[in-house]
Amino acid sequence: MSILESAFSRMFSSPQERGVSTLINDFSPYFSYGGIGTSNIKVKESLKLAAVFNAVEQISNDLAKTPFALYQDINGNKERLVNHSADFIVSKQPNYLMTPYTFKKLIGVSLPLRGNCLFEIISYNNGYPESVKYIPWDDVTDVVLSKGEMFYYVNGYSKPLMSSEVLHFKQFSLNGLVGISTITFACMQLNLALKTQEFATVNLDNKGVRQGVVETDKVIKDKPGIVKAWRAAMGEKSADRVVVLDEGMKFNPITITPQELQIIEQQKFNIEDIARWFNIAPHKIKSLEQSTNNNIEQQSLDHVSDTIQPLVTNIEQEFTKKLLSSKERTTCYFKGNINVLLRADIKSRGEYYSKMGTIGVYSRNEIRRKEDENNGPDLLDEYLTPTNTYTEKQIENNLRNSKNEKNPSA
Q1: How far is CA 379 from its chain centroid?
Q2: Most-buried pick from 125, 139, 246, 373 (CB within 10 A)?
Q3: How far apart are CA 55 and CA 46, in angstroms?
Q4: Local structure of residue 70 (DSSP, 8 states)
């Protein structure tokens, strides 16, 4: 038996026999597969809440809109490596079934709902990445840490996948190796929100009629008949239905009303709490009560910096670590351009470009490229410098050049 076969034979045995740490089993109370802890809420059930669905949709859409590209740092200048296979995967075609948008959106959906997102890296014979294959986190049966290497046991795979063979994006983590979903921690709050929503639905189905008892001081001989008559009357779909209680009978409800439960107030609270769980501004999930024209722009900036930027950084580093060789990582890196999420109205964008172009941060051709315009004349590649910000050396050079032009023989 070869060394490799011997190693794999140990992997196929149980974790106890292997003498290794199984990350999923050790932390199983925190993980989200089909169900969540002791609550009966499931991931798909949580998406029935409009605030949860919209939070995941907004985060995944913003992540999907963020373009990623591979760059190389050459003496302080970055150069786009468009011919590298890793850049092609990230920016053009992750695999023949997905576009870059759906690839990134899948990551944005899986992380908050599952805590993890896994892709197998398919490589060419020369070792360069060719494509990536999505692996649903529910198909991962175990994650094992053995001698400094992680192994992923996946349904349908005859051998475990090593960490170098997968892109593993993880969200909040207690060990830095396997993520935990937002749904896992928020299950109690989300369960309350679902129950509130269910109560409102049932109350509407029952047309506001509640459970209760019929009281009377007299002895009633035909009790089943009274119950049957009551149900028949209350089951009518007519809006002008009338129920008559005679013989001094009274109906006393035994359930609490939506008003007593403060359903509307509870639903508003649930929306705000869901926004906190998903670290997203309330206005992004269409809750505008606390938003004004003055603060909504700042909230949008906070959304990019506090919600999207951490995800982008997470993905940048995983791409760089797994899709590049150790030698390439010394000068090459992936970068997600979140500027596309910060595009304001034309007036604000024009003022921004004007300032950046005037102080020499961008050349005018660079500004044109940012607006998806073709390059202008070569003159527009020159950087502008305001005359009132010249250094003493620049002033001296300008004076010297001016004197030389006036007196060439000097």
Answers
A1: 43
A2: 139
A3: 11
A4: E
